[in-house]
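ok so i was messing around last nite and threw this chain in just to see what happens. nothing serious, just curious
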Amino acid sequence: MQNKSEGMYHDVLNHLTRERLAELESRPRTGLIIFLDYTICLMPVVFGLLALAEYLYVPNLKGNTSTSTYAYFLGALTIFGGGFFVASLFWRRAFYVLRYKAPFYAFVFVLLTVYDYLTLKTGRLVLPYFPWTDQILNAMWDDRVYLLDCAKNSLTLLFSGYFAGALLGLLTGTACGVSRTVDYWLSPFIRLLGAIPSPTWIPIVMVIASTLFSGAVFIIGLGVWYALTISTMTGIRNIDKSYYDAAKTLGAGPLQLVFRVAIPFAVPNILQGLTQGMSSACLVLITAEMVGVESGLGWYVSWQKSWAQYGKMYAAIVVLCVVFVVVNRGLEVIRRRLLRWQEGLI
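result:
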């Protein structure tokens, strides 16, 4: 029973809705509660319409111009929210998902409305540093081909450094975890390199590297290597010695102890290190592109900023956010799939 409760707790923390649905279903379903639940589910549509009305009917500050792009954007989001609400009337799972997410979605519309009012309508946040959302969307559309190419180059650089650092980190972490001799010689260097932020190495690496790309890969991989080395080493060291004894009793050799006992039991720590390594890689990626790489979203942000093209700069930042959210979400899905047994899921 306790394991089941812990599994439900972890599932809710990771934004799944199956156990939350069961929890909410167990509440008394009075008429007032049902009315309030559906009112909350309708909030994104209401605030989306308010944001659209603010954009269309509140007059712009004199000299500020706008197009219909932002209106179409708000309309699409509001229609999507309305479709989700209609689905929630007939599909119980959709209802509880929307009931959980609706306040945040409504808050996003509030932020968009406030930002549009402070920029386009009143000029409290002045150009060129704060372009209104319509300008950002138009800049994103006008430069979409270049942005997609930069996103592709950024992802190529990100995953090249990430996988190189992850592979090396897994090797060094496993070696240090299972061998006291290797740990004696490598641990001081690991702690030394880990204490120095990865961006600190950029000026040195960019000088000695054969190409800017390889130098950036090294910088990105360095942060991933450290995160995965520490997590793998910690996971292996925390394994109960009785598992090794049982495996030896069954005739397991040194390699079998590593690949059948040490690494499998350290998988949760390894996956946690991979997640932390991706966060470090994303941070270092932008820094490396801004100072040394000739293409990519970070380079694009720095380039447009130097020309005071803040609309295009913010457009690239939006694309960066979307890319990083998708990448980290993908890692989270993989981690959850591999650790279903740990969370009590079937």
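not much to say yet. The domain at 144-338 is CATH 1.10.3720.10 (MetI-like fold).
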